[in-house]
Design goal:
globular, seven-stranded mixed sheet, mainly beta, 52% strand
Amino acid sequence: EVQLVESGGGWVQPGGSLRLSCVGSGFTMSRYAMSWVRQVPGKGLEWVSSINIAGNRTTYADSVKGRFTISRDNAENRLYLQMNNLRPEDTAVYHCVFASNRGQGTQVTVSS
């Protein structure tokens, strides 16, 4: 059974940082490109960032470019999202995804 489990979310003041982690099981992460998406209650999923299999190509939504960094550790079946200079509009549930699989997510709240 494929499982994706995110962690690392929480509350942070504007300008703060968080590092999200996603651990996969039931599949070999090194065979897939991976992504982070986020969702605000009442709104659709918003793509945040993607990384290729080798980890040497990354793409970002304009809204997070220059502030977020995606990375991966294929040996550990882990995906990461380093989030710096967080803004209130980054508040959402963050999910890691591949193909049609998505984890339950981790809540990120940015407020003063």
